[in-house]
Amino acid sequence: MHSTDGALVLFSGGQDSATCLAWALDRYGRVETVGFAYGQRHAVELACRAPLREGIAALGEWGARLGADHMVDLGGALAGIGGTALTSEAEIVMTEEGLPSTFVPGRNLLFLTYAAAIAWRRGLRRIVAGMCETDFSGYPDCRDDTIKAMQLALNLGMNRRFVLETPLMWIDKAATWGLAEALGGHALVELIVERSHSCYLGDRVHRHDWGYGCGACPACELRAEGWRRWRESRA
Ligand code: ZN
Asked: From ligand 1's centre to the CA of 218, what distance in Å?
């Protein structure tokens, strides 16, 4: 069943957002995407967006529902604030606060605000994003409570009835691979392995069975571990 609602998917070019895009295309008649350039050190993920998007559009009937892609260039605004390993060459470590140094304060809050502004303009009611509380790094802006509070703030501030959807919130990385398979079969899983990007260091040289990456950064570890557990669960 396809809702008449349109959806805007936060599409970074990673495994999670690719799965979210498939999820939205499975449900909504009109789906658009948005990406953000914010000085991320793994800017290669932005180059992965178009081929990944084209690949997903070529699966089944999804191409007919996939509309415009929007790019928001935040320039050096976030990177300029500094102090995070995601926008500089700083080492990726755990901080005293128990957060990885890749945490960019307010990043997802900004992304959702820009996404809602685009959704407002484009007449899209659903905003779909890959935030996940289950086995992620403990980023506070990925919490379900944060998303619910943002939905309220955006609806009040823009006088709309947006619905913020986070289909991955309560599933782990193994189940995210499973969801991709359920939505788009082996072809979608292969596409996500080959064309999506997760590695914080931007490594597109080393190819593993779960895709490209350095194999050692937190994003690679999470992706590899999820893949391993998913494969085991199917064996
Ligand atoms: Zn990596």
From this structure: 7
Cα 33 to averaged position of ligand 1 atoms, centre (Å)? 25
Distance 100 CA to ligand 1 centre (A): 14
C-alpha–C-alpha distance, residues 130 and 161, integer Å? 20
pLDDT in tens, 128-158: 999 998 765 678 888 999 999 999 999 999 9
Q: Give dist(CA 197, CA 192) in Å, integer.
A: 8
What's the CATH number where 61 sits? 3.40.50.620
CB 101 within 8 A of CB 85: yes
- Kindly report the pTM of this predicted structure: 0.91
Domain around 128: 3-234
User: What's the token pair of residue 134?
Assistant: 């289950």
Cα of 202 from ligand 1 centre, angstroms: 7
Centre of ligand 1 to C-alpha 205, Å, is: 11
Q: Number of folded domains in the chain?
A: 1
Q: How far is the CA of 5 from the centre of ligand 1 (A)?
A: 36
To which H or E segment does residue 174 belong? Answer: helix 173-195
Instruction: Tell me the H-state helices in 28-99.
Output: 44-57, 62-65, 77-81
CA of 78 to the centre of ligand 1 (A): 22
List the strands of the sheet with 126-128, edge to edge. Answer: 66-73, 28-37, 3-10, 126-128, 163-165
